[in-house]
Design brief:
It is a multi-pass membrane protein. It is found in: Cell membrane. Keywords: Cell membrane, Ion transport, Membrane, Sodium, Sodium transport, Symport, Transmembrane, Transmembrane helix, Transport. The protein has one domain (3-396): Sodium/glucose cotransporter (Up-down Bundle), CATH 1.20.1730.10. Helix content is 76%, strand content 0%. It has 23 helices and no strands. It has helices at residues 3-24, 30-35, 42-53, 56-69, 74-102, 107-114, 121-153, 157-206, 209-219, 233-243, 245-248, 253-261, 270-299, 311-319, 322-359, 366-390, 395-419, 425-446, 458-465, 471-488, 494-503, 517-521, 525-535. The chain starts with a helix and ends with a helix. It has 539 residues and is mainly alpha-helical. It is globular. The relative contact order is 0.17.
Amino acid sequence: MNSGILFGFLVYLALLAYIGWWANRYTKTEDQYFVGGRKVHVLAATLSDKASDFSGWLMLGYPGSAFKAGLGAFWAGIGCLFGTLADYVLIGPRLRIYAGKFRAITVPDYLEARLKDNTKLIRLLSALIIIIFMTAYVAAQFTAGGKTFAEGFGISDNTGIIITVIILTAYVITGGFFAVVWTDVVQAMFMLLTLIIVPFLALSKIGGFDKATALIAQADPAKLDPFGGATGWAAIIFAIGYASWIVGYLGQPHIVTRYMSVEDPRKLRRPGIFISGTWTIIVLWGAFFAGFLGFAMYQAGMLNVSDPEKVIPAMAVELMPSWLAGFVIAGIISAVMSTADSQLLVASSAIARDFYHKVLGKEVGKKQMVNISRLVVAGVAIVGLWFALTGPKVIYQMVATAWGGLAVGFGPILTLSLWWKRVTKEGGIVGMAYGLISEVIFEAKIYGWAFNPDAPGIFGTIGSWFNGVPVFFINFFITLFIIIVVSLITKPPEDVVKLHEELFRKVPIEGTNKKSITETRAKSQVENVAEFVLAKGMV
């Protein structure tokens, strides 16, 4: 084991330990444990949001995809960028306003209150969706951590997975949401620096971009085609297949919970979009080119890598001094932990709060609920560990499967409930139930994570039309349609409709807090609505 790499990593680990200890002083109640008491600064919430979003998929899965597919993998980055913007426009501000109004601290809290569901079915379905797909998502992060440790320290993947689980679970149990947010901020900066440094070092090593493209063209010219060599309908499907991540952003509980914690919903617009958008563009560029240039290094005999998804840690070890490589390995582990910690926390809230406390009606004190949640975190981590040790160990595929289940289960109902006053609890129940059942059947029994022409019966025919497109992309719109149809044939309570109209009614330009027309028009309508709601004490 290289002592320099170990030193760099241990410094990073000590920093995480300090943050967990510091955050524990501010984690005394359930509200603080799950959403930080709704006092999180927008800068911290935004960086935490993106660190939670871009997981081991960013540092291992996406570069591995670029290594294998070449230029065509850039479509996935485009999908992620526009998905990020969609979250801040469609979900963030409105969810924060509603969450403040209902004092909701989890997504199921919000959905139950917004749809006025007294049957507990929405909360139960939410808990099932989170438990099933979030545990699978956590397993993908554990696998990513295991691969990184294996490449950096010369140990087996399974040993690396076990080390990842121990480190991660310890600080989530200790610090709760504050620990997750502030470690995410540190991790976001590690990820940013890693993905800026590695591509430039690779370019220097190869001898320039022209030399890199020549090496790639010699090996496989299709890797330099943005459509992977496909034409016509096949080219469109190719692009959709990679860019389809966009719809998933609307239904990820570990991401949207960040918006519920922000101190001021207005800041989720311009400051939030600017910070998040800038960070996203840089890291996606870096991750793509790390994998793209890594393939050129591999073809030139400059890099030895056994697994395409290990290309970045292999490049760090090859291109950097050992102590700096240790920090890069820490940056990759950061990406893994920054998502897995949030997912563990959301899974914990689904079991401890939504199921045990709300569905079963078990009354416990706030401090006791925090302790129960910590035990649940440990339990979910153990289940995730088992899946990571026994699963396929292909991070891109594992993340796509889990991402899709959450996207279909939550995305359509969450978006409609924030923007359409007519959505009903019946629509939500039927839509979420369909999303849960269909994703389990389609992804586990028929297609796998993407459509393929080898599926049985009529599904094989459909698979030949959309070969390579993730199942969740098509299923998202089917679920959206089902919720709309059921909501149109049922009727929402009048007070629910009136509340929605009051919260999000158009705010007049003139006379808004005595600001001039120019000052008021300089803001977006969403910002004006948020300011109006806060001024009226609705949140």
